[in-house]
Amino acid sequence: SIDVPGTIVRTTRDATGYHVSIDGVELGTFAGPLHFRPTDAANRFRVENIRRTFGTTQVPLYRGMIELSHSTGTLTDRLHVVNIIEIEDYVPGVVANESIASFHMEALKAQAVAARGYAIANIGRFRASFPYDIVDSTTSQVYRGVISEHPRALQSSAETIGIVASYQGRIIGALYSSSFGGHSDNSNWIFNVPSSQLPGTNFTPYLVGIYDGVPPVLDLTDPATHNTFWRTIQPQGYDMCGRVNNRFSRWKIIIPAASIKSRLTTTNSVLISGTRTGPVTGVSVQLRMPSSGRVAIARITLSTGVVEVRGWDNLRNVLGRSAALTASSCPSPNGTAIAANFTLTNPSILEPYNNPDGSFGGVNAYGGGWGHNVGMSQYGAHGRALAGQNFLQILKAYYTGVDVGSYPIDIGREPGSGPPTLRQQFYAPNAAGSLVVRADGLMKLVVHINDTYDVVLNQEELEAGTVTVDISAYLLPGLNTIQYNPVGRNGSATVQVVIE
User: Fold this and answer.
1) Are both 318 and 261 inside the same structural domain?
2) Is 310 among the domain residues?
3) Start-to-end C-alpha separation, the chain
4) Of the candidates 46, 248, 355, 471, which lies 20 to 30 Å from 330 by C-alpha distance?
């Protein structure tokens, strides 16, 4: 434990272990891993060897504990600085990095809930090779600690404490990205597993493509509707320029044939016939994503052969990347130009054009959005909030079929089924919600709410499997406490409060 603010701890590691000194005085050599914890939880750690940018580049501050360790799998010679932190202290350090602090508060609340759930759902993701669960970059979520705890990030986190999105009693990996240009895609078309197959077999029912605008819903399988939708700014889309100043809501980038050729590699394209040595002579669409109509497979003809570019990541790098400075679809002053070699997303329309001599010149690529087009659109969430939707409505719009509420937790009396009694806190903004119990052989359950009220479910009620009880009369507008007390020797249940 570290007791005195301003204490300087220096650590190095070699073959003999971790060498630690405190304020210049050698403390000793230890096998590790090392854990540093402030005696006062209000104190923070400055990690002097790291720089993080939030507005300006700074030395970051972190709450919680700091662990120094090395990898258990690959990169065993690398020293890792790990921040061990409570989830509610982590979320404010994510919100203003992944979203924009000036966005509507309901959009920031949706971001806080998504970030909280994503972190919990991905606990253990890297543990096979590294001494941490998630990372602080876009590989997981951008987290910069205390320096990025914008007041609005703190507010949005505090007003959603203990709230996650879940599907059938399990916390979801709530994916999100900047904007969709009015339409998202099914996750198994973007993050397809296996990578050689489109779509992948990894269909996720709560990550399906949606039309992200006010009704009527458009049928993008109709060629004329598809063409009009992706070529023009759609005033009904929630993430459009006119609503939220999103310069990526619509884009047209010109990609010359030489640029297409220079981007083709053996990694991002599949040789269909011949060789890939000659110049590009044509581009066509072979397959579209069924929800949005974005390109899923593009065929590129060369003078010496044919290749195909398949899947979101390959397509955005070959045909969704600007070749030159490109004007924004947003008028000034919000229409900051799109920089050269800026990667957007997979295009929706590929329009070939010819050179003056009639030879193939390249393509005009039309599209909308920036990012992977799965889950929640951050600009779209802002647009929905401006249109009057609260964070619950926003989350349910983007994550199909989910519940939003307290963490689903497993309780019971059977060995390994969870603790016999569990207490949790959650925020209920409207003092409205329902207790949902998915029981398996549980004889009786006593639910103690806000240290005042008891809801008792007997064996006959629990035998129904899933029990839903309106507990709005017992909830407070704000932070609530609930305690689950299963009765009997056997049985278990997954319990959750779904808020409204």
Assistant:
1) yes
2) yes
3) 42
4) 355
